[in-house]
Amino acid sequence: MSTALKSPPAPPRGRPYPVHVHAEPQPDASRWLWLVKWLLLIPHAIVLVCLWVAFVVMSIVAFVAILVTGRYPRSVFDFNVGVLRWSWRVSFYGYSALATDRYPPFTLADDPDYPAHLEVDYPAHLSRGLVLVKWWLLALPHYLVVGILVGGGTWWVADDPPARFAWGGGLVGLLVLVSAIVLAATGSYPRPLYDLVLGLNRWVLRVWAYAGLMTDVYPPFRLDQGPDEVGPDPAPTDVGGPPVTGSGATAPVAPSGAYVVPAAGNAVSNAVGQVPNAANAVPSGGTVSWTAGPRPTPQPGWTAGRVVALVVGSIIGVAGLGVLTGGFAMEVVDHTARDSAGYITVAETHVDTPGYAVVAPPVRIESASAALPRRVVGDLRIRVVSDASAPVFVGVAPSFAVDRYLTGVARTTPGVGRNDDRDFSGSAPASPPGDVAIWDASKVGSGPLELVWSPRPGDWDLVLMNADGSATVGADVAVGAQLSWLGGLGAAALLGGLVLTAGGVTLVASATRRASFSRPAAPVAGADR
Question: Which of 64, 287, 438, 494 could anchor a disulfide with 397, C-beta 3.0 to 4.6 Å?
Answer without folding.
Answer: 438
